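Regression test attached.
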Amino acid sequence: MNGALLEMRGIVKTFPGVRALGGVDLDVRAGEVHCLLGQNGAGKSTLIKVLAGAHQPDEGEIRWQGERVRLTDPQAAMRLGIATIYQELDLVDGLSVADNVFLGRERSRFGLSRPAAAQRATGALLERLGHPEIRPGTEVGALSAASQQMVSMARALSQDARLIVMDEPSAVLDNEEVERLFAVVRDLTADGVAVVYISHRLEEIRQVGDRITVIKDGATVATGLPAQETPTREVISLMTGRAIEYVFPQRAGRSATTAPPLLEVDHVTVPGHVEDVSFTVAPGEILGLAGLVGSGRSEVLEAVYGARRPATGQVRVDGARLRPGDVASAVAAGVGLAPEERKSQALLLGDPIYRNITLSSLARFARGGFLSVRGEKQAAREQTEALDLRPVDVDREVRTLSGGNQQKVVLARWLLRDCRVLLLDEPTRGVDVGARSEIYALIRALADRGVAVVVVSSEIPEVLGLADRVLVLAEGRVLADRPADALDEHQVLDLVMQGTPTHTTEDDAA
Amino acid sequence: MSTPTTKAPPATDARPRRTTAGGLLSGPAGRNMGLVIALVILCVVGIVTAGDRFASTDNLLTILRLAAVTGVVSVGMTFVIIGGGIDLSVGALVALSSVWATTLATQALAQDTHWVLMVGTALLVGGVAGLVNGVVIAYGKLVAFIATLAMLAAARGLAEIIANRRTQIVQDQDFLRFFAGSPLGVPTLVWIFALVAVLGWVLLNRTTFGRRTFAVGGNAEAARLAGIRVQRHTVALYVLSGITCGIAAVMLMARTTTGSSTHGTLLELDAIAAVVIGGTLLVGGRGTIVGTVLGVLIFTALSNVFTLNNLSSSAQAVAKGVIIVAAVLLQQRVAAGRRQRRSPKAVPPTAAEGGPAGASPGVPAP
């Protein structure tokens, strides 16, 4: 047993017509960070729901400290000391931090609540988590995502959790916040608490993980791998069932910069976000914007797209000036945006694929305002085939698609419009490792067709691998504008860290 | 679409978000079937309890004539609600339009020209009031509930001021004769309702305007970033609703031969109730005209059956309340069942890479 805190053996969970889990094993030791890896749809979420008592397994056994247990409901799991911090935090925005921590287990005496006691206890928990700056009386809705996560952690600790499951905790955090989260995780494990850590980011797992379990297609394919030593290539191939040879597509051989620019951004300033940013993008060129969260990279895209009105400066497409702060005129000029939050900003999740694809080109399928649905579906089908979007059935609701395929729906929307300038904000967020290279290849193919592409990504290797030219941003300013092959990850990081504009030219960099 | 409005059915597990919005309302056909069944049951009850008094052509036309006014307003309301808004001011706008169109000045002018002028006035007043609603909501960023609540109060007040709290008689006999007619044996008012419903259906389901309405109500931010002028569209929706109020005002003027500041009292509640039992989502993004029309007919038939059986209007009101809750509960069950039957496709067991179900848990709720 070697002191396993939790053992799950042969867990099977079937939903009507679907075998979501077909025999998963997982064992977690006290005081370790156990990383759970798998692509979207591999069964991670079902597994943690079984562990949280939200789903009942059809087969298999769960042992807690060697004893066989049944987690009949979430309360049962909580009583054992299993706490789950979901990706979408389950906090009540309108209540205070202390109220949230003790929600459902309010401290009371003679039927009267005892806010002071709850606040004291909450304060102590937050202190233990190393975040004494979060005040127990603050409304949770006013806190940052990172702080809210800490409130969830405090809630877990208040229940004497021995095992904390964290579902993609870093997805909403910037680098610094991730570092602080890791510090908290390390403190917890030092106290003997076990953490099951789920993330898409392999580099995080290297930093914080002890052991790795990989699940694929609802079954465990590897368990107990050492997190530090297992080669990335091996982890990826375990998850995808194949080794990825070339993640990034070849750059176009020609020097794109000689062509006259298609997109020109001139001294754009958005107060508080973007300070006097200028750049140009030629047709066929991919420009990457690198920078930390809050560096203004998304805001630059939004200003170009008209989703955010710049105070000064102008944006020109093919020489024609765009009306500032007007998305429709940008779209009319051939600009398209694939926003960061795909689900909330780009997609009509409950609508079929074809309606999502034609949303920006409705006029094309209309005669006198009347739509031709047949024409729409035909056009959508051509796009989905061209993009290898699965399933091909354009009547399927978009919510049933994987992250990668949802992103393809957004891309298809702009391809259908023949857009000439494509703005991509975190194009591979929530996309599986396997599907990423497909998206990269697609973006490159678009550029090769003469589209000017601007890519924002928080993953520096992605920017460097994909783009022809890279703009490094910090605090809304452009720190460097160089060819991607003249930069490496360390240089970008150095630039971002020092935070002051350097007027180095390309010659210096080389 | 993650607005957790439908917290009502706390599904057996901890994932209410998945059971919200869009999923509840997959195919409209199945749910309309439920409404048709409800209507049939009502008719059977009517025939059993009132016999020929219910099952006569005259009575059928009476039901349709009574349904017509609410029906027209409900069509406009359907657009507003699908577009993510609400219009509480419809009853007051009907009153204001009817009063404005029957003032001495308007009627005198109509006398000199043509009674169509009265119709035009009613439509214009409704449309302009709708424009005010729309501008305040879309550009003033006021919550629709509040903005139209304010319009409800103000418009009825204005109607009272203009009418000086008196009922204004429609003088123009040509006007009354036209609307009292029954081409092909069907009252003109019913024709108007049918026309508005058909035009509404076409507008919603066959035009870019309709598609944009769904998009704006389903996900306003996505619609905006897809290049749709969301604010302008929102204004158009309230104008549309206001115009249907103008039409309803004309119909009421014809039916009652008066214009009055008390016309259309509580009409907004009848319209919203009809739209909701018709399966339109109150958060927007989903809904049908057919459902709305059926909803209106169900309420009117219900009240007709009760009246024929000499039951009080209070009993009617209770029955109405029960029907609203029952209908919505039923819809949710049906939708949930359909979701489950369809879900196998959503997550193939051999989830290959690039496979199913987004970044969120790719598994259907049990």
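Expected vs. actual: identical. Chain B touches chain A through 58 residues (CB under 8 Å).
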